[in-house]
UniProtKB/TrEMBL annotation:
<dbReference type="InterPro" id="IPR023753">
    <property type="entry name" value="FAD/NAD-binding_dom"/>
</dbReference>
<dbReference type="InterPro" id="IPR051691">
    <property type="entry name" value="Metab_Enz_Cyan_OpOx_G3PDH"/>
</dbReference>
<feature type="domain" description="FAD/NAD(P)-binding">
    <location>
        <begin position="6"/>
        <end position="313"/>
    </location>
</feature>
<dbReference type="Pfam" id="PF07992">
    <property type="entry name" value="Pyr_redox_2"/>
</dbReference>
<protein>
    <recommendedName>
        <fullName>FAD/NAD(P)-binding domain-containing protein</fullName>
    </recommendedName>
</protein>
<dbReference type="InterPro" id="IPR036188">
    <property type="entry name" value="FAD/NAD-bd_sf"/>
</dbReference>
<keyword id="KW-0560">Oxidoreductase</keyword>
<dbReference type="GO" id="GO:0016491">
    <property type="term" value="F:oxidoreductase activity"/>
</dbReference>
Length: 376
């Protein structure tokens, strides 16, 4: 079945929904596809309140932000196809291949494509890391916040970034004991607002430590604890500092890697994103890649947070609508300037400055690429 659409958005998370909303506001015909059975992405796992400024939804829970975005999408008449996997993209107008409900295949022929495919959790290999009971932090969030399923009775968390801290607090809210947080760095990695809540709850912080192994139960169907140890300045375990921590679940929160499978198929140029996570599609200030008409937004363009993903989605949506002639250049310029002002606010301070510099480096490299390749 041949289906034509002006803009195809791949991914119905915060970036994808925001892109769809902005483009649809200007009258673009938008189709959103997502492999999950529910739209909203990570927002529906985030039961905590956002912080920052009012324009960044301070004081609003992630799940409520997601609900609001969904309502906007529905009110604008955007078509959303769930349980739909975009498994192939063919540049130069040859279409995007979709698998619907795991069976039905169809081609979609969009004029513009916005890839908001998110990121995947990083694994951490140590003896016993494949045992039942060793779980990614995102999976923990899905179980306790979405499906209301307890992951265990006593959890040891590895990683003290924002994800590790937030999930730790959400475990406590679910009535699950937390044995501690293990962090190889000498200090906690996440925001003080998150770490303070965890510290006040009395959760032990094992900074300057690493996990040596997960200790299995007798029949190897789970874990009964973990052996941790202090590390030296080269992050090597210090002999004689080993200790056993009792737990029946080990959570892993050691960062995310951008999902770049589809951009790879689109033959875009990649660049090292530094602290934003491995290779990402090179893109300009409109979020457009080196392949005309293909945009990226959110974690697939460099891992940040949901607030930044929302703003990047807006940029891509406005730019795609402008390229289709749905909005004149002056109006689009003003709209994008407002979004960039919001993004720059998010990328200030001791934590945000590094993200700002990393993003600017990507954009600078894109400008150099354009000059080298005589691109507009």
């Amino acid at each position: 079945m041949r289906k034509e659409v002006e803009i195809l958005v791949i991914g119905a998370g915060p970036a994808g929904l925001s892109a769809a909303i902005e483009a649809a506001k200007y009258g673009a015909d938008v189709l959103v596809v997502d492999e999950n059975d529910k739209p909203g992405g990570q927002l529906f796992k985030q039961i905590h309140k956002f912080f920052g400024s009012r324009r960044h939804k301070a004081g609003v829970r992630g799940v409520d932000i997601g609900t609001g975005l969904l309502k906007e999408v529905q009110d604008l008449g955007v078509e959303v196809m769930l349980n739909t996997v975009a498994y192939g993209i063919y540049p130069n107008g040859e279409g995007v291949a979709l698998a619907v409900n795991g069976e039905e295949g169809r081609m979609v022929y969009p004029k513009k494509v916005i890839m908001a495919t998110g990121a995947g959790e990083n694994p951490l290999a140590f003896p016993g890391w494949t045992l039942p009971g060793v779980v990614g932090a995102g999976a923990i969030q899905t179980m306790i916040n979405v499906h209301r399923v307890p992951v265990g009775k006593r959890v040891l968390m590895i990683g003290s970034g924002n994800v590790g801290l937030i999930v730790t607090y959400q475990l406590l809210q679910a009535g699950i004991e937390v044995a501690g947080i293990v962090e190889a760095a000498p200090q906690v990695g996440g925001y003080g607002v998150h770490s303070a809540k965890v510290r006040r709850a009395g959760v032990p912080m094992y900074t300057g430590h690493t996990v040596l192994e997960a200790v299995p139960n007798e029949d190897m169907t789970g874990v009964i604890g973990a052996v941790i140890a202090e590390v030296d300045e080269k992050f090597q375990p210090i002999k004689g500092t080993e200790q056993f921590v009792e737990c029946d679940t080990i959570g892993i929160a050691v960062g995310l890697t951008p999902d770049i499978a589809l951009p790879s198929m689109a033959d875009v140029t990649f660049v090292n994103a530094g602290r934003l996570g491995s290779q990402v599609p090179m893109h300009d200030r409109n979020m457009e890649t080196t392949k005309e008409g293909i945009y990226v937004a959110g974690d697939s363009s460099g891992v940040e947070e949901a607030s930044s993903a929302i703003e990047e989605g807006k940029l891509a949506g406005i730019a795609a609508a402008e390229a289709l002639g749905k909005v004149d250049a002056k109006v689009a310029k003003e709209a994008k300037a407002q979004v960039w002002d919001s993004l720059n606010q998010l990328r200030t301070g001791p934590f945000g400055a590094g993200r700002h510099d990393a993003k600017e480096k990507i954009i600078e490299e894109m400008e150099e690429w354009k000059v080298k390749n005589n691109a507009c």
